[in-house]
Amino acid sequence: MTKDPSQAHILIIDDRPENIHLLSTMLKQAGYQQLNGLTDPRLVTDALSPVPDLILLDMRMPQRSGLLVLDDLNDALDEHCPPVMVLTADNDLNLRNQALCRGAIDYISKPFDHDEVLQRIQNLLYLQLKTRKERDQAARLQMLVNKQTAALRALSLTHPLTGLPNRRALLDAAERQLSKGPVTVMMIALDGMEAVTKHQGHLMTEALYKQVANLLANSTVARPHRIGVWDSTRLVMLIEEHDNHAVEKAARINRLISGHHTLDGRLMFLRCHIGISRTELETQDVAQLFRQAILAIPTDDQLIGEYQPELDSQAQRAHLIRTELGPALQSGQLSLVYQPKWRLDGGLMIGAEALLRWQHPTLGAISPAEFIPIAERSADMIQLGDHVLVMALAAVECWRKNKLINDSFHLSVNVSAQQFRPGFADSVLARCQAVDVPLHLIQLEVTESALIQHMSVALKELQQLRDAGMHIALDDFGTGYSSLSYLKQLPVDWVKLDRSFIQDLATNASDKHLVGSVIDLAHGFGHGVVAEGVEKEDQQFVLQTIGCDQVQGFLYARPLIQEGFEQLLKTANQGNATINSNATINSNATSNNNEMA
């Protein structure tokens, strides 16, 4: 129907042609032009194309009654049936009610009253126009709502930064696939994003994340599969099958992502570790499948891990350790042991390294190789590091009071990356001053990886400590990214050679040459050199010949509890604690050194 009711299409059904003629003439005079008449009600369905806007229907027809025609209209058009106005000469209320019950909107009594007929038709057409407008408006509104709903659903399943499926979409897709067959999940953890944020800011981190995600999504290894975003540092590759080549694909992804990435002229380094899980049972829970992939992500030097059931028990133990670490700090379960350091040019003991130990009341001895990494992934490491420093200072204070050490002695304390925050140096200095321990008696050992993570802050804090008189050692030297390039700029006094360089020193000419070069280089910058993990006399001999300054390891002594170390100090004061090629402090030391600094 147009906006003008006079353009409405009106169908008149009456078995008497004179009635059709009369109504048609009346309507034409009123301005209605689209008029059709039908004298045989049995042909009504043929006259419904196009569907009229209004039907005037006679009730009394011999071929087929008006009531039956109403039934025909309802059957043919259902909810799209136009309004029907019945024409009747009867005053039968029952007949009119039956017509109204079948869908008739109004009725006109014969003989027709000219003004009444036109007014009723006009009213009905205006009502029809209004109803149709409302219906069209509702339809348009519903269409808009549908579009917006679809758009919102798409947004709810899309990661806004990358445009890739988000966690919800990945879970939904895995759920659908699991109902049809097996699923393989790869959880890809990006390592180095935190460092980018600290040095370049959040916007650069987001841009890098987007670049890496798109790089993966468009790669040949990932293109057949679904790539999505799990969180701000992890991506997912969802493989809709039990993929026996998942490890090979993970290795390709690792080669694709690990390394340097250039963005806006800036070079940034990332590594990735990948965990793989597969459905084993049709009833396996999808959320569990993704959790298993997260558990399978390696936390060590291994790049790719596959889920194994024992990872669940390991995760439970790690959670228990994480939960118990705080109370352990308060209850005295943590203690220090001390591994002596020796001078190679005279064999005298000149210091020791403080190593942390944990004796749990129910779990027993927990290795630092287990609980230190857990602490480093939480806020407990800061409190733990401070606790170690307090215990170390208390020990030095006790030894000085009992005259077990002199001013040439030093005790090394390890510092974690998490401790390098503004104010760290002030805190250390305040701790030393509180117990009146001279700063040169304390040596802080920091790994290169810790320095790399917090370079600007670490350099400032360490320089402040060094300027105050405290010695700094670069621990695990040679295992970082670019150790040699940092030697000339780091505020350190000592370089500690990692045990991996010492292991084959006596039998591998390359290792001997490498260690000798590092010692010469360190000496050139004015740094002393300490070799860790010395376990054999031939290793000691080589170190002596190439100019190493100090050594520590099982060849000389295992880490000792405080009472045992104090006994060693007394021996040293008597002049008996020296090392040589024929006698060691601990002749029963084994060659397997798994102690963790």
From TrEMBL:
Any idea which UniProt keywords this protein has?
A: Phosphoprotein
Residues with the 4-aspartylphosphate modification: D58
Does the record bear Phosphoprotein in its keywords?
Answer: yes
Residue stretches making up the Response regulatory domain: 9-125
Residue ranges of every copy of the EAL domain listed in the record: 318-573
Q: Signal peptide position in this chain?
A: none
| Claim: Phosphoprotein is one of the keywords in the record | yes
Record SUPFAM superfamilies: CheY-like (SSF52172), EAL domain-like (SSF141868), Nucleotide cyclase (SSF55073)
Put simply, this protein is called EAL domain-containing protein
